[in-house]
Please model this.
Amino acid sequence: MLICFFLSCTQGALAAHNDYVAPDYHEPVTLLFDHSFQLGTAIFFIEYLIYLFPSEDEDTEQAISNVVSPHQDVGKLEVSWSPLADEEDDGTKDLPEVGDPKELIGKPWTYMIKITSASQLNQMCKSAYCQYEFNGETFTTETIESETKAPKFEYEFIHHVDSVTQEFIDWLQRPFHINVFVTPYVSSPPHDKISSNNESIVANITGKKPSRECLG
Model:
């Protein structure tokens, strides 16, 4: 639609022998890339949270897979979970031992999730954020505005369940997805602007190269 609009403006300018230049903020390349999209998804297996275990080192970093086939790795995401006795726990309180998932039913459950950073992204981004669903509710990190392939989110959130149900235990046994969204970084906008002096555009509209005298 915008391309048609720009071409219409250019065509009108040519007919009136006026100049027309599309504003920088309306440049198609700028509009195409100046928005966030889902770069990929990191999948974590968090069944160990049933037993109130903290994340092991090998659990904290997972590949970010592209959302479309062939689902190639497009970076890495670092995430960890720390069990807490309650929402006021600073990590020093004793935790109960859970040997069987059924022992957790009816009891409170509290964990802190930390989404530390992404790394080795396959493209430079201008901004980035993460989003995930926990027990039916969507959570989103702050948007990090930084030109980098390794945005640092430093996100922390305490998730608390007053009374664990079998449904919640079943949920913890499923793969846990964290989606990574980015806005691409465009190092330099195109020099060939949409305008009534752009020879390629004028040639497509009129079927001939523009006359500099007619364009003023």
In short: Helices lie at 2-15, 28-33, 166-172, 199-206. The two ends are 28 Å apart (CA to CA). The longest strand covers residues 73-84.
